[in-house]
Specification:
The complex is a heterodimer of chains A (314) and B (359). Chain A is mainly alpha-helical and 314 residues long. Chain A contains 13 helices and 2 strands; from the N terminus they run H-H-H-E-E-H-H-H-H-H-H-H-H-H-H. A two-stranded antiparallel ribbon of chain A has the order 1-2. Chain B is globular. Classes of the chains: A mainly alpha (314), B alpha/beta (359).
């Protein structure tokens, strides 16, 4: 198991490296006009100076090597020249990522807290009014672009529940709507898949054997069906993490949250290479970690999945 | 076996079961009357779709949701308080929970899918033991290990903590049997328990069931389409066709004295009785469509020697002996004498020659 995880981590690192390199090269292929807000009024000399200062006058592969060297030897993610003038990226992000992570984790927790019971109840009463209502809710949220319901939540919920519009770190009340917004796509995602897998499981033969044993359908639902339906949910964990990341990009700018999500759009527009690279790298890491966690969770819950190679059965 | 003194444990009276399927009604069980005696092994034979499994699902309350009892009664006499229970009137799960497992238990056909793949076999058997014997902790574990040993699983202590995928098909079926036994039922329904297993394992499982029947004082209802298995295990045999029992008697009576043309046809198609070099007998045609009401003897259209009345009127049971009866007009005194097919005559001759059945 440990060997497997180490192997998996090594491979993930490689993936990450490729992603960062691609983004790195793509950013360098953008026109240099973007680096200077007043490009039209600058002399050739000033432009060359500026490029040299940012290290952009070197060939791309040398720039990449320098960046990777800095990353592995000093843990440096480069220096921001546009978003902030000559401040290390790690320093800028240090205050921002804890907020995003906190929001994301709270959203994830809320999604599990609401999504799993909703899916269970729907599967238990398959075809009943609660199932139909839930399905309608799921389809609506899935069909609407997230931007639409994020906006609707902000528009109506702030008024309906008398919640403040802007986010303040110290005021817990202002956390409610952003966290709920982030959780909403995952709530329906968890509910949808859990319901589906529970309905699948409950038609299996072993459920019949449990009935024959004399177990009540309630006990069968919780002791057998729920547990078995939970295993395949592991593969959706990465998606839900990505949902949160993508959601945070929009939600954070909606509520003016000083996190990482809103930042990405901003720094891409302003062509701050170092910032873009760093944020993309962090988001990619979230996705990859999600994948690994999902797989590990499945292997812990399902004895048939073994990473340590084939063991002889029977 | 003397059936005079036997106590009836389960009684079926004129049972009719129907299914709603896409707006049509399928008449799956057409007026079955049957007594099951305490301590016997009753085999129910018939081809696929004859209603064997549907009939038995009624005894444990697991009829599919679109099926219902349209008429008739099922009465269970085995409760410890001595009061009969009318199973056909049960509506709620709560009522069935007093029957399932502790009174009637069942072994299903496919051991590969009957077990929860994510729970150890020890846990799955333990659930049944805890539910019906109220044991916990170390005592529970001991009881489960004993049952594992009883069903012939070697190294039960080690096997206790293993998962179903670590067991072979035959061993899994033993686990399924262990679960059924762990409930301490009075009636054990075996729904083709050996069909999914290979032949060498089949005999082992049959022997195991015979042994458990004795050790645990079970009444066994054995559903099968394999008459070879029947000869091996059953005291009595009920032959089903198109949702009805067309002939019932002791094993000897069914093998040597059968009277219904369908029973003859079934016996004739036994590979063991075929003659080398000759084509094996097979029954022509298909069973009747049960979406339509069947007129007369359901087997008549496939019976080359059917009488005119077979197409008109359902034959009643004719008693051949106190334990043997058949639903065929051939037994009416007015019927013409029709000789059974050659194979049946050979079996009868062989019996007179002194050979024992089941060999």
């Amino acid at each position: 198991m440990l060997k497997y995880i180490l192997k998996r981590l090594a491979r993930s690192l490689l993936t990450l490296l490729i992603i960062v390199s691609i983004v790195f090269i793509l950013m360098r292929k953008m026109p240099i006009t973007g680096y200077f807000p007043n490009y039209d009024h600058m002399s050739q000399e000033a432009i060359a100076n500026g490029l040299h200062m940012m290290g952009l006058d070197l060939p791309v592969h040398q720039q990449l090597l320098l960046f990777l060297k800095g990353l592995f030897t000093k843990g440096s993610l480069g220096i921001s020249y546009v978003y902030r003038n000559q401040v290390p990226v790690t320093e800028i992000l240090a205050t921002k990522w804890p907020i995003s992570v906190k929001l994301g984790l709270l959203g994830q927790a809320l999604a599990l807290l609401i999504g799993l019971p909703l899916g269970t109840v729907m599967a238990q009463h398959k075809g009943g009014w609660i199932d139909r209502f839930g399905t309608g809710f799921i389809v609506t949220i899935q069909a609407l672009p997230a931007a639409v319901y994020f906006l609707l939540i902000q528009l109506y919920a702030t008024e309906a529940f008398r919640l403040p519009l802007a986010f303040t770190y110290e005021n817990p009340k202002t956390w409610i709507l952003p966290v709920f917004s982030l959780a909403l796509p995952n709530i329906v995602y968890y509910a949808m898949w859990l319901r589906r897998y529970m309905v699948d499981e409950s038609t299996k033969d072993y459920v019949k054997l449990c009935q024959i044993k004399g177990m009540s359908s309630r006990a069968i639902m919780f002791k057998h069906v729920f547990r078995n339906a939970f295993v395949p949910l592991g593969q959706y964990l990465p998606t839900t993490l990505l949902n949160t990341v993508v959601g945070s990009i929009y939600v954070e700018s909606l509520y003016s949250i000083p996190g990482m999500g809103g930042l990405l759009v901003d720094v891409i527009k302003r062509q701050d290479n170092a910032m873009v690279q760093a944020i993309v790298m962090i988001f990619a890491t979230v996705g990859i970690v999600g994948l690994i966690l999902g797989d590990i969770m499945m292997s812990l819950l399902d004895p048939r999945i073994s990473f340590t190679g084939k063991k002889g059965g029977r | 076996m003397d059936y005079q003194d036997r106590k009836v444990i389960l009684s079926v009276e004129d049972l009719n079961v129907k299914f709603n399927l896409r707006g049509k009604v399928l008449h799956a069980i057409r007026g079955i009357t049957l007594d099951v005696y305490q301590g016997e092994t009753l085999a129910i034979v018939g081809e696929s779709g004859s209603g064997k499994s549907v009939l038995n699902k009624n005894f444990i309350g697991l009829l599919d949701a679109n099926g219902f009892i349209s008429d008739g009664k099922i009465i269970y006499y085995g409760m410890d308080d001595g009061n009969p229970r009318i199973l056909s009137d049960f509506q709620k799960e709560k009522e069935w929970l007093t029957i399932r497992g502790s009174e009637v238990s069942m072994i299903m056909q496919d051991p590969m899918t009957s077990l929860n793949p994510l729970k150890t076999v020890g846990k799955q058997i333990g659930e049944a033991v805890r539910l019906h014997q109220g044991l916990k902790g170390a005592a529970l574990r001991q009881a489960v290990i004993k049952i594992l040993g009883d069903v012939g699983i070697p190294e039960p202590e080690k096997r206790y903590a293993q998962y179903p995928h670590e067991f072979s098909g035959g061993m899994r079926q033993r686990v399924v049997i262990a679960i059924a036994i762990a409930c301490r039922p009075k009636i054990l329904i075996c729904d083709e328990p050996t069909t999914a297993l290979d032949v060498t394992i089949q005999a082992q499982i049959l022997n195991l069931l015979k042994k458990l029947k004795k050790d645990y004082n079970l009444t066994v209802i054995f559903i099968t389409h394999d008459l070879g298995v029947v000869a091996n295990i059953a005291d009595r045999v009920a032959v089903m066709y198109a949702g009805d029992i067309i002939e019932i008697g002791t094993s000897k009576e069914i093998f040597y004295e059968s009277r219904h043309p369908y029973t003859w046809a079934l016996l004739s198609s036994l590979p063991q009785l075929g003659v080398k070099g000759e084509e094996l007998y097979s029954i022509k045609g298909t069973p009747p469509n049960l979406f339509k009401e069947v007129r007369g003897d359901a087997f008549a259209p496939r019976n080359p020697q059917a009488l005119a009345i077979d197409f008109e009127k359902i034959p009643p049971y004719f008693d051949i002996s106190p334990t043997h009866k058949a639903k065929t007009w051939l037994l009416d005194p007015r019927a013409p004498k029709i000789e059974p097919p050659a194979v049946i005559q050979q079996i009868r001759a062989a019996k007179k020659g002194g050979a024992e059945y089941g060999e």
